[in-house]
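Schema walkthrough. Field components (list of strings):
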Amino acid sequence: MAVRAAHELRDGEVVFVGIGVPNLACNLARATHAPNLMLIYESGAVGAVPDRLPVSIGDPALVTGSLAVAPMADIFQYYLQGGRIQVGFLGGAQIDRYGNINSTVIGDYLHPKVRLPGSGGACEIAIHAQRVVVVAPLSPRSFPQAVDFITSPGLNGKYGTRESLGLPGAGPVRIVTDMGILAPSHGSGELELVGVYPGLDADAVRKKAGWPLAVASTLEPILPPTERELHLLRDVLDVDRLYIGKRGE
Amino acid sequence: MAVRAAHELRDGEVVFVGIGVPNLACNLARATHAPNLMLIYESGAVGAVPDRLPVSIGDPALVTGSLAVAPMADIFQYYLQGGRIQVGFLGGAQIDRYGNINSTVIGDYLHPKVRLPGSGGACEIAIHAQRVVVVAPLSPRSFPQAVDFITSPGLNGKYGTRESLGLPGAGPVRIVTDMGILAPSHGSGELELVGVYPGLDADAVRKKAGWPLAVASTLEPILPPTERELHLLRDVLDVDRLYIGKRGE
Amino acid sequence: MAHPSGSKLMTMSDAIGRFVRDGDVLVIEGFTHLICFAAAHEIIRQRRRDLTLCRLTPDLIYDQLIAAGCAKKLVFSWAGNPGVGSLHALRRSIEKNPDRPLELEEYSHFGLVARFCAGAAQLPFWPMRDYRGSDLPAANPLIKTVTCPYTGEELATVPALNPDVAVIHAQRADASGNAQVWGLYGVQKEAAFASDRVILVAEEIIAESVLRSDPNRTLIPGIIVDAVVCEPWGAHPSYAQGYYDRDNDFYIEWEDISKDPERLATWLDEFVYGVAGRSEYMAKLGPERKQRLTASPLMSEGVNYGF
Amino acid sequence: MAHPSGSKLMTMSDAIGRFVRDGDVLVIEGFTHLICFAAAHEIIRQRRRDLTLCRLTPDLIYDQLIAAGCAKKLVFSWAGNPGVGSLHALRRSIEKNPDRPLELEEYSHFGLVARFCAGAAQLPFWPMRDYRGSDLPAANPLIKTVTCPYTGEELATVPALNPDVAVIHAQRADASGNAQVWGLYGVQKEAAFASDRVILVAEEIIAESVLRSDPNRTLIPGIIVDAVVCEPWGAHPSYAQGYYDRDNDFYIEWEDISKDPERLATWLDEFVYGVAGRSEYMAKLGPERKQRLTASPLMSEGVNYGF
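Field assembly_structure (string):
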């Protein structure tokens, strides 16, 4: 997923980086096709160039050698709400048919089955980033028809479309999973499968979603990770296998 | 006036300092009875210890050796509106019977006879400082019955009393002039003469106001400036006679 | 408000004893960086009760306060063990404590940052573009809206947060509480200005003249500070840029410690109730850990303040 | 928005030529400190017209732009020659120019600071406790009120200010426009974030590695900057802490120069139209003045960014 997520980034873009796979993806992109990627962390580090894989979103390695440190009030008001962030990365326990994301609770809000961490900056990233890339492994439980709680608004939902709500950003335009890539179909905002990883069958992948996942008429070609990408992930960026696990990806 | 204004300050107070006589008064107080006076300038210098008399409110000497430099957004929001300023100093071209101050225009706003500099921070200092000391030479023209334009609200006026307006600070509780001191009478908020300088006659002084200035039943004793105070003003703080003029005070 | 100058130096025990009361609304801020665990442990030792704990990320520090029974309510925006997993004491108090559940008041990061901004500015609310399309306003009725007097747009609002007391950790401060911070600022300045009382904890107390030689580094002015505590390593297992690194191993260990209530109780007994203060705590951790975490030198250059 | 990295270095003449247009809403900020006179003079030389000039303190810089006929409107909060007297070109355009008066839009300092805050945050308004009991809202109908959704209180509001272009002067910057400032900050950060285009002028261009060695000094990030101009002494007669002092003598001289329209025109001919740029202007002022104003060294100590 880290390699696919890295491919979503273009050189020179301003990216709001979350911890975990998004962070790994950003640093992989910086080491390969996007050396001028501008990493901004909600903790306040701007133009970070971490020389170790940050364990937390506020790792001291994000500050050392960065271009600027901003108070969080500036990060949320001037950078994010100010429209300066081009790409936001989000994960979530549940992503639904319209890209709404739940990172708050499984079950009822007041009497939850599982209490998740909550929004953090996710709600406002989903609203303000010019586009959002979501990273999450595909499974029926994680991709239900409708999420238990909308932490971060997607493309359409019970409160309306992004347009009717006046949300500034384009929302979750790419969902990178461990089997393929989902993207909103033109018009409805419903997610459809637009690409599958090499060796996987689109029809098998689509059954992993919790709703009848549509498949795009033409699938994007997706190449396997290059040797260099795998080397960077395994031997440089995530030596301790904090995020890539033992499978490599 | 600088000496009288300095006497209005108590050691350890947090003072919002304006340029000119207020600045001179604050530095005189710091050199005499109030060494722990905390000088805050609207330019952002906090705990300034200028080693020369600042010509402007943003003089570099206010920064060098200060305790902190704050963005102006913090100065106005967190320090002033936040209620952290105990004393504010103001001047003005006109001060009226109820302590309203005009530093905007003489004459009509749209077609002024004289265009003055305007509010700067005066309006919000008058509203938020816990108490305000006004410094201005007494004359019928400068102390009219009613000001041409209320830049900074006083104790009472066409919009209501401070209480009815919900203004947080006590307003202009002391008006230091070149002949005596005015203060609001209890209740009405109308200014009255509460002290005259040595050698001056209360009845003569009260006629310098543009309205029938009341005289307090008991006048405060006001001592002449000490030799040390005059020495500090003339030979240390304002060597170039930028503010004290040739008369000494 | 505190006296602007003069020494406010005291021990952590005195500072907590004098300025933190049962039932207080308390904020110990610091975003990953400069989280004052030393203050939290002293609060646990002094057995404060019914606190309303406010923080963007409750982190291990509030998990410990909750486990020790100090908390009545939590005001937060992201409750996890960053990069590791869950805050299990917190989760137990929500998921498995139907009789006396911890009260929750939940925002997003921006929302809670905005609450501190409003509090610091003594405004009753703060406007923002947020929450449209989200279930958060339905879960928290304190998230409201206001109509812009210029454009007619409806904007989200949060109410001011004005805690009774803030604990602010800084790299260095003078005895009056003027405090300098570099590295991540988080929302420490806003939390300090928003609070009625401020306890300033520093890794190091410096002479006023050193502080005055670089006034642009000062984040917190002494005029809003009530107590100054010198507490080296006071932020461990969090970090202080230029002093010591984050103890990521302990953050990982906490996953197992906090999962098991008995193990957590044993940990509190040993590392909090069982020590008099921070220096004993650090001694218990051992010199190897201290040495491993001590920051290597990477000094910035000075700039010219002359004129 | 500008590209985040890569060199944006160009001459002042190119920067003004490319990014300042007739009719623009322009802000050249800097509160006493770091006022970019070099940019204003280039705007005069390139004969821009119908500008809406925004600044807390119009100062000599806008008095010159007004005298040169560049301005249509002034948005301001304190219009004087600080510590000296009046801005006479500005006053003439108000008091003695009934046919084509300069439009005025007037706030207090707090009000104009708040307009930049709203602009930077992309909010349509900013709430504040201000203006009650004052005639300012009667003079400026853009000062309005909003009702707090929590307390029912009526608060003052100002609308966002989003200039077309901002000129920001800094002590030093890298070629991408990441800029470091110490001494007074004024409202430069907010003005920069509020503006569509940003011209960053620095006393000195430094290597990115030098800037990255002290990231907490960075006030303006390069991602919002369109042009970077290296212009030593570009703020004279204003000052740059650590580089040169304020030329208070010139502020006093301006009183006489600006009082007399002919003398002002002669001054503009000699010091603005008559020079190609800042280095010729400084040469004209003479080496004695430069030497007298050069800052003496008073270096701060570095801090540790290691971990």
